[in-house]
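Design job #97: recover the sequence.
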């Protein structure tokens, strides 16, 4: 079987409505909006919550880093989000409380930032979240364009469908064959930009064609 067959695609760090509409036309599965003020792709510098809420798509992901539960719940409602991605140091108690505040149809993605070594504590999050996401560890909380050593996640059994992030490109797509457990979704960002938040749509189109 083709290693990239049936893989879904998430494009993260979106800031431009025209580009978002083109990505919807390309049938991208997940649209990622970063609600982290320190990010160069902080969406609220470009779009309002109302504008995001009016985007007609079932895969709108809000990315949050160590944000308050109240703020996440408020933004998810006002922006009409479908997924919440927790990219910071949120623990199980935080997620439990957040889950109670969110609309029940919103799914939660818990991010694990992978460095040289890694401690996978899946069991505590397993019943609380819907997906895991593996990204390269960095002080900037993602968007580095760097790939972590995928052999690290080969050492464990991943109990949830997962997103794979961190410097994914057309060039390293072939390396997916080394993974024992394939991701469900590839999460792309900085390798497909002309500048932070401005996507190279032709590059994304080419990449997406490789996933067929």
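Job complete. Output follows.
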């Amino acid at each position: 079987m083709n290693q990239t067959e049936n893989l879904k695609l998430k494009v993260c760090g979106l800031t431009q409505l025209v580009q978002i509409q083109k990505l919807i036309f390309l049938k991208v599965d997940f649209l990622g909006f970063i609600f982290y003020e320190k990010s160069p792709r902080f969406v609220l510098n470009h779009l309002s919550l109302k504008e995001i809420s009016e985007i007609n798509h079932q895969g709108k992901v809000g990315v949050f880093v160590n944000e308050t539960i109240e703020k996440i719940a408020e933004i998810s409602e006002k922006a009409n989000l479908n997924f919440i991605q927790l990219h910071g140091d949120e623990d199980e108690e935080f997620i439990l409380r957040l889950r109670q505040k969110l609309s029940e149809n919103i799914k939660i993605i818990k991010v694990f930032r992978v460095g040289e070594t890694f401690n996978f504590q899946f069991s505590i999050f397993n019943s609380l979240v819907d997906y895991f996401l593996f990204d390269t560890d960095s002080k900037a909380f993602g968007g580095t364009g760097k790939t972590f050593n995928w052999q690290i996640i080969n050492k464990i059994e991943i109990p949830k469908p997962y997103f794979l992030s961190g410097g994914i490109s057309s060039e390293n797509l072939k390396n997916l064959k080394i993974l024992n457990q394939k991701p469900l979704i590839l999460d792309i960002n900085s390798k497909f930009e002309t500048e932070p938040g401005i996507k190279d749509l032709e590059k994304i189109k080419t990449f997406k064609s490789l996933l067929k």
